[in-house]
Amino acid sequence: MTLALNRSELILKLIVEQYLLDGQPVSSKLLADHAQLAVSSATVRNTMMALEQQGLIRSPHTSAGRIPTTAGIRLFIDKMLQLQPLTSMWNNELQRRLTPQLPVSLLCQQAGQLLTNLTGFVAIVSAPKADGRIVRQIDLVRLASDRLLLVVIDEDGDILHRVLHCESAIDSNTLSKVLCLLNAALGGGGQWQDGIERLGSIVRSETGLCQQLLQKVLGQLSLDELQQHQPLIYGQHQLLLAPEYQQNPALQQVMQMLEQPDGLIRLLQTVTQDEQPKLLLGKESGFIELANVSVIVQRYQQQPKRFIALLGPRRMNYARLIPLVEACARQLNLNLNRRQVSP
Questions:
Q1: Which CATH architecture does the domain made up of 135-228 adopt?
Q2: 10 Å Cβ neighbour count for 119?
Q3: pTM of structure
Q4: Residues 6+ apart with CB under 8 A from 191
Q5: What is the mean pLDDT, run by run of 10 residues, along the chain of 343 residues?
Q6: CATH architecture for the domain at 7-80
């Protein structure tokens, strides 16, 4: 589809496209030589001056050329950007790596890792588990006289397995008793968090080796519950490789936000109210830490609400990356729906 643009819009489009390509200021001479423009350098300069007065482009201190502002990139994306079809290589990777047989947690992990591997940017996936997680099965398997394997399976098919090392040998009676107490606290399709609270009360009423074992189980269950409710973030180190951020103090602010992402996660939860991809450009996010980055985010499940996002420099190839995030969210949604309807 060919967009009908006036001269001012076309010049802005060319400036943004060139800037996204190489990150360098764009000169009026370069634009005047462009095949799509049949005007003089003076006309280009006058148009660029008008665009600058509108706040759509600006002049860096060290160059006579112009680069787009956040407002200029936003206008380009909203009105002029033409999305590219997903490449067959990327589509094949999504189909191969994101399969419905995977438990939910592993599916989310695969999606985040795949997104950062394909793009070289930071991938963010909302917490794999939502409140109300259900325990389907819990068991203790003897590995040795002083070692047990804790196995917990939730309703999504995710399996927690941890080796418990004990200070002394565990007799069969103690093992049977501990297993009965665990099933009383967590069995019967109860919620994980409620089971942890019941188990905490049981621990306080027991003594000796039985209490020690229950405390070890409680610690593992609590740790897993905490981890499953944290967002998954991949590729933070990729920011260190981006030319825009080398020796740039702004990088430190972004890295700190990714280490403590509660505010960012709340923002992404807020903007993903429908099935359409959303793009946050720099200061549009409301966070000064994100002034020099862009975030593409899309919801892939409504209940519980889950989203996937890609964070990188403002100089992204939006035409390729927005369809990739869309396709990744679509594949996740498809696989989760298949799991729900399967017998």
A1: 2-Layer Sandwich (3.30)
A2: 21
A3: 0.84
A4: 132, 133, 134, 135
A5: 76 93 87 80 90 93 82 94 94 93 89 95 88 86 93 88 91 93 85 89 92 94 87 85 66 84 91 92 88 92 89 91 96 79 46
A6: Orthogonal Bundle (1.10)
Query: Is the Cα dihedral 107, 110, 116, 122 positive or negative?
Result: positive
List where CATH 3.30.390.60 sits in the chain: 135-228
Question: Helix, strand, coil shares of the chain as percentages rounded to 5?
Answer: 50, 20, 30
Q: Which amino acid, one-letter code, is at 287?
A: F
Give the containing element (helix H, strand E) for 124. Answer: strand 122-125
Where do we find the tokens 């405390």? Answer: 215
Amino acid symbol at 212 = Q
248-273 pLDDT tens trace = 677 778 888 888 899 999 999 999 98
- In whole angstroms, give the CA distance from residue 232 to residue 306: 11
CATH topology of domain 88-128+230-341: Beta-Lactamase (3.30.450)
Give CA–CA dist 293/227, Å, rounded.
27
State the span(s) of the chain assigned CATH 3.30.450.40. 88-128+230-341
Give span(s): CATH 1.10.10.10, the chain: 7-80
pLDDT tens for 40-69 read 888 888 999 999 999 999 988 766 789 999
Amino acid identity for residue 65 in this structure: G
The per-residue b/e assignment along 252-288, b for 16 or more CB within 10 angstroms, e otherwise, is ebbbebbeebeebbebbeebbeeeebbbbbbebbebe
Would you say how long the chain is, in residues? 343
DSSP alpha helix (H) spans, the chain: 7-22, 28-32, 41-53, 70-75, 88-97, 104-119, 172-186, 192-205, 208-228, 238-241, 249-259, 262-271, 318-341
Cα separation, 98 vs 251, in Å, equals 31
Cα dihedral 54→59→64→67 (10° resolution): -90
Query: Distance between CA atoms of 182 and 210, rounded to whole angstroms?
Result: 11
